[in-house]
Design a protein that fits this description.
The complex is a heterotrimer of chains A (440), B (294) and C (227). With 440 residues, chain A is of the alpha/beta class. Helices cover 34% and strands 12% of the residues of chain A. In chain C, strands 1-2-3-4-5-6-7-8-9-11-10 form an 11-stranded mixed β-sheet, covered by helices on one side. Chain C is elongated. The chains are: A alpha/beta (440), B alpha+beta (294), C alpha/beta (227).
Chain lengths: 440, 294, 227
């Protein structure tokens, strides 16, 4: 009789995944670059629940009683604020990282749903301007393709200071995606790796930013709302300083927010979860007496109407989606599973967007792959998805007795976990307490 | 994040106008720092030490002169200026005066033979008005308008920071290793009063000087030991110095004529200075210490 | 010749006047008096127009200029002619940081010195500096020409792309991936033209040319020290 042996045990610290990354690093000598946002589990909107109405509060009737979802962005200084039908916008994603057809599809879907879409690090394309009724033009450190004509034909200007996937980091687009058209728009040679700066070339800090905003307003006749986008790093201070520098709108992107390509270590280890960013940002605006006057747009991991409603309840004026919009267009669709397998991955996990070999034809500049995306059909899918988010959000708002989604409040929520209770500053379910609540 | 102005007079004729000139410079920097404003002004050296103290409660100054006289056994002139008061304390009575002032809950903004420091929350023009900065004369002065980044908008969080006699510092930028430096200084017995990064910079310089470094050496030391972005302007009894970090993102411009040396975050602050049209105007180089002394 | 006194006119009115004049083929030249270091002076002009600024300007003078000719009879603050598309901007005095940053086209002439980061991320603009330039100039410069009659500070042309740098004086140090390159006849021709247009009294033969070694164009682990 042989001696009993223990089952082989994998290390939790040195997991298979960890070891595979060590081997990859040893073989290549370069950090792992990928697209998307943080994949680790972090406290999120799932850890919150709405209380709903009962005897003490009265709900609204689903199909008869109106629950308004409109939102106006840029009411502080801009002569022409942006009026949206729904509190969900499409986040900035560059032409270059996405194909022209994908940009067109985003524009079509957003326009049908009555909301805005946003350019990215690479300038404005005719596809997106032509198909977006409302287009936000990003003003980034690289200033690729930046020009006063596009600035004037934009509906708003978003000064990008940072993004949730990489607060404090610059951009990256590897040579495979720098086609002739992309290179032309960026004034770069074709096929080279393109590095975007992490800081703006001509200002640093809120005191300079105020002057930069003045210049942008002077160039555009004070018409366009000026958004400031920051990654979720120090949300209280960043929000307060953006507001002091003169922002009309603040876009706050938590760590689950995506990127076209960044070091995995950056995506997973820098920034705060979206859930943790909202209350400090709202507090900053309230302290300045500017909550709702300077609008707050929250992004990073918004997937459902519940996420939308919870973000609004915590004090956001709107949310923005990127990754979810790409999935709605067809990104990571299991119908391409065979091809994902060939790339060494699987549907849902594909994140090598920077390599430009996207089987779904979205994050690519390959002319053959691009054809796989029908911009009209994809635009309709996005429209449908945005409508579902809105209907879901309304359903929850009505259940809480709100005739406008902006009337959702933190007091309409409870938390399932201590972490979520602390981050969202709402009571742990069944109690009237959260960690750090004043008075306890 | 902020606006800085500084003026160092080379000729005595301009001394009565120092406050007036600095006030105009300060007000032009309002956009860069609307939260609070402060000024350090170096007047005639006194027989003894000038204590500038502050309290939000006007009643705190009631009976102060009498209490000081009781405690120190000498008469201490007290000049009230809005929320601040300037006391003239014999040098050998310094410790007793500090003790009494602290017991009474007064904040000591600065101590020096020549230096007086006034700072408050509010717009620069209002702060200047409250203290009557325009009427103040002197040999040199430094002013600051603040847009608070990570520490609170309070009187104590306003610049200039003084961490030693007749020394003060103002800062534009943001230090990225100030927490560690604060802990290092505390180990040496140098304690800061606020969470402000600039105060750490000021305390670093004072502690280096206390250890025997010249002001120039202490400023050189900031380049090695402080991380982040900074433009520092520092005042001493006899002069003032300027240093920018090696990356030098935060703006700085200087002007010099036969009558003065001026510093500002932006040229706008110079627009009303006499003879500015023909002044030598330049930007301080990164990682280079500039220093003027009389 | 219409004159606007900036000490009596709001910036918005000043720029609106110039912007509408530049859009309507106006042939009159404008004079701006008392700029006193104001920011965003004569920005976003979108057509041919002559503007003379009598004095020194603050941040972003002539920002995003298109086709206009702007002459500053004084010094210019940070980011002069930033993101210029075309036209001409002449600064009689010195320019602060980031002169001509991200400029896509046109000619920027600085008769005095330019501070740090001159021509940062330039994308096609031509810049001629009669004096010297500060550190980190032409950082990540992509396209266009930077001509310096004086000296260049530290880390010239760091992470340079395809911009051409011509320096007559000394270069304190070159940035990562920036190297001295052979001056060929076509470069002398470009230089002669730029010097003439900038009213610079210098001979093309006196300059050295610097450009990208192109070793950072695609990631290579052997260059990790440069990252």
């Amino acid at each position: 009789m042989s001696t009993p042996t223990t089952e082989p045990r994998q290390s939790w610290t040195f997991s298979k995944e960890t070891n595979s990354e060590i081997r990859r690093a040893a073989a290549t000598g370069i950090y792992d670059i990928r697209g998307g946002g943080a994949k680790r589990r972090v406290p999120h909107f799932d850890d919150l629940l709405f209380l709903g109405a009962s005897i003490s509060r009265y709900p609204l009737e689903g199909y008869r009683e109106k629950c308004d979802t409109s939102v106006t962005l840029g009411t502080r200084f801009a002569k022409k604020p942006i009026e949206l039908k729904i509190p969900i916008t499409i986040a900035g994603m560059s032409f270059g990282s996405l194909s022209g057809r994908a940009k067109e599809a985003l524009g079509r879907g957003a326009t049908m749903a009555g909301t805005s879409t946003t350019t990215g690090d690479g300038g404005m394309t005719e596809e997106e301007r032509g198909h977006s009724e409302k287009l936000v033009y990003q003003y980034l450190p690289s200033r690729y393709g930046m020009n006063p004509d596009d600035l004037r034909r934009a509906d708003a200007i978003e000064v990008v200071v940072g993004q949730g996937a990489k607060p404090g980091g610059g951009g990256m687009l590897l040579g495979q995606k720098i086609t002739e058209r992309v290179a032309g728009m960026r004034d770069l040679p074709q096929g080279i790796d393109q590095r975007s700066a992490c800081r703006h070339p001509d200002w640093t800090g809120p005191d300079d930013l105020e002057i930069k905003i003045l210049e942008l307003r002077e160039i555009t006749n004070w018409e366009k709302p000026i958004y400031i986008k920051v990654g979720g790093a120090r949300p209280y201070y960043d929000t307060a300083l953006a507001a002091k520098a003169g922002a009309d709108v603040i876009v706050l992107d938590g760590m689950q927010g995506g990127t076209a390509a960044t070091q995995d270590v950056f995506i997973e280890h820098v920034g705060q979860p979206t859930l943790a960013c909202i209350r400090p940002a709202v507090q900053a605006l309230q302290d300045l007496g500017l909550h709702r006057e300077v609008q707050l747009v929250v992004s990073g991991g918004i997937r459902t109407g519940a996420d939308v409603a919870k973000a609004l309840a915590l004090g956001a004026d709107a949310v923005s989606i990127g990754t979810a919009a790409l999935v709605a267009l067809g990104d990571n669709d299991p119908k391409w599973e065979e091809e994902y397998q060939k790339l060494g991955t699987t549907a849902g996990a594909y994140d090598d967007w920077h390599e430009g070999r996207d089987p779904a034809g979205i994050t690519t500049q390959d002319p053959e792959l691009m054809k796989r995306l029908d911009p009209e059909a994809a635009g309709r899918r996005l429209r449908n998805y945005l409508n579902v988010l809105t209907l879901e959000c309304q359903t929850l708002a009505r259940a809480c007795g709100k005739s406008h989604v902006h009337n959702l409040e933190p007091e309409d929520l409870c938390a399932l976990t201590m972490e979520a209770a602390a981050m969202a500053q709402v009571p742990l379910a069944g109690t009237n307490w959260w960690p750090g609540k004043p008075g306890f | 994040m902020c606006g800085i102005v500084g003026l160092f007079l080379k000729k005595d004729e301009l001394r009565p106008r120092l406050g007036d000139m600095l006030t105009d410079m300060l007000i032009t920097m309002t956009d860069r720092g609307p939260d609070s404003a402060g000024i350090a002004i170096y007047g005639d050296a006194a027989e003894g030490l000038k204590f500038t103290v502050q309290s939000d409660d006007p009643a705190a100054f009631d009976g102060l002169a009498e209490a000081l006289e009781d405690a120190l056994g000498v008469s201490v002139p007290v000049t009230l200026k809005d929320t601040h008061a300037v006391l003239l304390v014999p040098a050998d009575k310094q410790a007793g005066a500090v003790e009494l002032l602290e017991t009474r809950g007064l904040r000591i903004m600065g101590i020096g033979e020549a230096m007086e420091i006034f700072k408050e929350v509010g717009l620069p023009k209002d702060v200047a008005e409250r203290f009557g900065l325009r009427q103040m004369g002197g040999s040199h002065g430094i002013g600051h308008t603040r847009m608070a980044t990570e520490s609170a908008v309070t009187t104590l969080g306003a610049h200039p920071f003084s961490t030693a006699e007749d020394q003060c510092l103002v800062h534009n930028g943001s230090l990225s290793n100030h927490n560690d430096m604060r802990r290092k200084l505390a180990k040496k017995g140098v304690f800061t009063k606020t969470e402000n990064d600039t105060e750490v910079g000021a305390a670093y310089i004072s502690s280096r000087i206390a250890e025997g470094a010249s002001l120039g050496e202490a400023l050189e030391g900031t380049l090695e030991d402080l991380d982040g972005f900074f433009t520092f302007v520092t005042g001493t009894k006899n002069g003032f110095g300027v240093v920018r970090d090696p990356i030098a993102c935060k703006p700085a411009v200087m002007a010099e004529t036969e009558d003065y040396v001026a510093f500002a975050s932006e040229y706008r602050a110079f627009a009303d200075l006499p003879g500015i049209e023909t002044a030598r105007v330049w930007e301080p180089e990164p990682a280079t210490v500039y220093f003027w002394e009389r | 010749m219409p004159t606007i006194d900036m000490s009596k006119t709001e910036l918005r009115e000043v720029n609106a006047t110039l912007q509408s004049a530049a859009g309507t083929q106006a042939t009159e030249a404008y004079v701006l008096e008392n700029p006193r270091g104001s920011h965003a002076v004569a920005v976003g002009l979108n057509g041919p127009l002559d503007v003379t600024v009598k004095g020194s300007t603050g941040y972003y003078c002539a920002g995003m200029n298109k086709d206009a000719t702007i002459h500053v009879e004084g010094s210019a603050g940070p980011g002069v002619a930033e993101n210029m598309m075309s036209g001409t901007v002449v600064i009689d005095g010195d320019a602060s940081q980031y002169a001509g940053a991200t400029g896509h086209g046109g000619l920027l002439v600085i008769k005095g010195n330019a501070s740090s980061r001159c021509g940062i991320s330039m994308k096609g603009i031509d810049i001629v500096v009669h004096g010297s330039i500060g550190h980190m100039s032409a950082f990540m410069a992509q396209k266009g020409n930077l001509v310096v009659l004086g000296d260049a500070g530290d880390a010239l042309g760091d992470s340079l792309y395809e911009a051409r740098l011509f320096v007559r004086g000394s270069v304190k140090s070159l940035g990562a991936d920036c190297v001295e390159k052979e001056m060929r006849p076509e470069h002398l021709e470009i230089l002669a033209d730029l010097l003439a247009r900038a009213g610079a009294d210098a001979k093309p033969e006196e300059f050295k040319r610097y450009g990208s070694a192109r070793t950072l164009y695609n990631f290579n682990i052997d260059n990790a020290d440069a990252y």
